[in-house]
Amino acid sequence: MIRTFVVLLCTAVVALAGFLVMIPITWILGDVRPMYAVAQAVVRFLLRLAGVKIEVGGADLKLLPRPCIYVANHVSNVDPPVLFGSLPRVAIMAKAAVFRIPVLGYALKLGGFIPVDRERRDSRRQALEAGMDRLRQGLSLLVFPEGTRSPDGALLPFRPGPFTMAIETQVPIVPITIIGTREVMPKGRSAIRPGRARIVIHQPVSTTGLNASGRSELMERVRGIIASALPADSVPAH
């Protein structure tokens, strides 16, 4: 619990100081990439401070096509920062409430992140349109298609949003399996425990030539790829 408090305190202080410095620099340069790089470095530092060691395996990230949609399973609140600190630049679809946090919310908007309000259907539609705009601009997306964290590690059913975006823009999907973050911070826990997060990057799945009729098959194919690297006791739910 003490470790969690220290990490949260450092996160608040470093984030506020960093963004207050980097936001004006972003205005001056007209380029968000320096702020993004600093944010990634800060996130990696804070994860190390929390005792979270990250191991990335599978496909070489440098050789993957861009833009693409990274699609990952979701078992912990640690998943987004772990992937944010490990992947090339992405825009992430995040809860709308996060964007209401002073300074942080503005920085997320500068970075092209996309707010989603689960209670509003029009918000989900707007998020899909914004996501496709980012892809057409050459920016990759990170999406958790389950829509929420799995309470027991089993893979939940996927929502169609990221697959619709991939087909509409004809960009590939890169499946990602996250292992170990549930032990670090399971759903329902607010304390962070030291541990190892393993990220398995799978080969991209092409959407070239696909249309809406192939969406369900695409979803099941990607879901199967992600499930294939999960521990044997994480049986996907149907």
CATH structural class: Alpha Beta
CATH topology, by name, is: Glycerol-3-phosphate (1)-acyltransferase
Q: Tell me the span between the first and last alpha carbons.
A: 35 Å
Helix content: 40-55%
Average the pLDDT over all residues and give the rounded result: 88
H and E string: HHEEHEHEHEHEHEH
Helix tally equals 8
State the secondary-structure class: alpha/beta
What is the CATH architecture annotation?
A: 3-Layer(aba) Sandwich
Radius of gyration: 17 Å
Low-confidence stretches: none
Main beta-sheet strand count, sense and barrel state: 7 strands, mixed
Shape descriptor reads globular
Q: Can you say what the CATH homologous superfamily is?
A: Glycerol-3-phosphate (1)-acyltransferase
How many E strands?
7
Strand order of the largest sheet: 1-7-6-2-5-3-4
- How many domains make up the 3D coordinates? 1
Structure characterization notes:
This protein has 238 residues and is α/β, with parallel strands linked by helices. It has one domain: Glycerol-3-phosphate (1)-acyltransferase, CATH 3.40.1130. The protein is 42% helix and 16% strand. It contains 8 helices and 7 strands, in the order ααββαβαβαβαβαβα. The relative contact order is 0.17. Helix 4 links the parallel strand 3 and strand 4.
Topology:
Blueprint: H1 2-29, H2 33-49, E1 52-58, E2 69-72, H3 79-84, E3 90-95, H4 104-110, E4 114-116, H5 121-136, E5 140-143, H6 161-169, E6 173-179, H7 181-184, E7 195-201, H8 215-228
Parallel strand pairs: 1-7, 2-5, 2-6, 3-4, 3-5
Antiparallel strand pairs: 6-7
Helix pairs in contact: 1-2, 5-6
